[in-house]
Amino acid sequence: MEDQLAEQVALAMAALSGPRYKLVEVQEGAGLCAIYGGAESWLQLGLGQAPPKTALYVGKVDKSLSGRTGQSPVRRTFAALLRDHLTLRGIPRNQTKPDRFADFALSEENDAELTKWMTEHLEIAVWAGDAQGDVEVAILKRWSPPLNLRDTRSTWGAKVSAAHKVMTNDARAWARERGHKHG
User: Fold this and answer.
1) Pseudo-torsion of CA 42, 15, 9, 150, nearest 10°?
2) Is 88 exposed, middle or buried (0-12, 13-18, 19+ CB in 10 A)?
3) CB-based contacts of 134, cutoff 8 Å, min separation 6
4) On the chain, which terminus has fewer CB atoms closer than 10 Å, C or N?
5) pLDDT tens sequence for the chain (183 residues)
6) Smallest Cα–Cα separation from 123: which of 48, 40, 181, 2?
C-alpha cells in the first residue's frame, strides 16, 4: 500500500510539474491541480520573488476556480491577497442572513475582476489519477505551496491568514453597516 502511494505521488508530482494550461481550459473534476503564476503574479500577491517552479496552490479541480468566490477557498485566498491591488472588498456570502464571515464572498463586479486577473496571470497543471486525498497531502508536505493553509506549513502562511482576516473583517463590517445583528 505504501509503495502504491509513493508511486501515485511520483506520478502526480510529474504531471503537476508538467504542461500548464489556462484556467478556463480545465474541466471540473479533472483531478488534482497545481496553480502557477509568473514573477509579476507573485509580486502582485505580495509573496515576493517567485521561487523557480513553485506552485502557488495544489488542490482538487472544481468549478470554483472560475466561479463564485464565496464557494471557493482558493478564490478567497487570491481575493484576500489581491484586496488592495484590485480594490476588492469582502462581503458576506449570504447577504440576507450574514454569518460565517470567514467564508466571505465578493460583489459580482469584484468577482469578475478577480476572475479576469486569474485568467490573465495564472496557469494550471492537472493530474487525473486516483487516491487524490492521500496523494494531495503527500504533495503538500513536499512542496509547501504558499496558498495552501491545510496539511502544510509554508513561510507565507501567516501572511495568507492575515489577509483572510482583513477580508473577514470587511464582510463583518458590511453586515454591521446594514444593521445586521451578527455583524
Assistant:
1) 30
2) buried
3) 5, 8
4) N
5) 688 889 999 999 999 999 998 876 666 666 789 999 999 999 999 999 988 889 999 988 666 566 677 778 889 999 999 999 999 999 998 777 777 888 899 999 999 999 999 999 999 999 987 656 789 999 999 999 999 988 777 788 899 999 999 999 999 988 888 777 655
6) 40
**Residue for grid cell 501572511:** 159
What's the predicted TM-score (pTM) here? 0.89
C-alpha cell at 93: 456570502
Question: Bridge-partner residues for 58, per DSSP?
Answer: 34
